[in-house]
From TrEMBL:
It comes from human gut metagenome. Residues 5-67 form the Nitroreductase domain. This is Nitroreductase. Pfam families: Nitroreductase. GO terms for molecular function: oxidoreductase activity.
Length: 70
């Protein structure tokens, strides 16, 4: 699972994350690997358990998850 996060105050988050996700998915395809854009984690990030796990994985104060790739 790859989690893409950025500073919440940055205005162009979704565009940048979308470009990164597309490039990773194209790379997976080139390597004959499947991939799946997992968007649910973005909608669950206000959950305390999810926040704790994201901090454990290195998410810093002021950052938000915008997408994840499996």
């Amino acid at each position: 699972l790859i989690v893409l996060a950025s500073q919440a105050s940055y205005a162009n988050n979704f565009a940048d994350v979308s470009c990164a996700m597309q490039n990773m998915m194209l790379a997976c395809n080139e390597l004959d690997l499947g991939s799946c854009w997992v968007n649910q984690i973005r909608h669950l990030q206000d959950n305390e358990r999810i926040q704790a796990k994201m901090r454990e994985l290195g998410l810093k104060e002021g950052e938000k998850v915008y997408a994840s790739l499996a």
